[in-house]
Hints:
The protein is mainly alpha-helical. The chain contains 10 helices and no strands. It has helices at 3-23, 29-35, 40-46, 50-74, 78-93, 99-108, 115-134, 144-159, 167-178, 180-187. The chain is elongated and about 55 Å long. Residues 183-194 have low confidence and may be disordered.
Amino acid sequence: MRADARKNRDHLLAVASTALTEQGVEVSLRDIARRADVGLATLLRHFPTREALLDALLRTSFDELTAKAGELERSGSPDDALASWLRDCVAWTTEYRGVVVLMAAAIEDPESALHASCTTLRAAGARLLARAQAAGMARTDMDGADLFALVAALAWLGDQHSLAPRADRLFDVVASAVLTSTASSDTRGNAGGL
Length: 194
């Protein structure tokens, strides 16, 4: 890619990131182009679909969360690793309002531009869950798909203005349901959690 084309693409991504943070994933592509001071055709030349734009924006974050899962898998206790990754994953999914809906749809659609990134992220969480399960620190009646669904549900709470103040507490409630070590700690009066 030529240097000027790369610069234009990077500028479009920066503008799109701001627009998505402010308005959510349903932000108009025309609005993004207008904010970037380019025509819609220029935006579509770089990103022919909304999903292509979102994939370019989100892939770095997906890759970072996947890499973090790998790091946590090699260090720390299995329950702390799962809790830390889950908290980071939920926090990230609330950064762009509505992204969790796209992720849930993409995981089921192999044709989606986001499918590969979402399945890789789900697999990373599943490995952390399996490690905690093998250590007897997480319930064994759930899998990576369940964990991914919990991330989506917890992120949805953060998207709801009236429920957002409860999101941290409800995260801890869910943590105590997933992590057997957390549930045991909570019943002894400790306020631990994910």
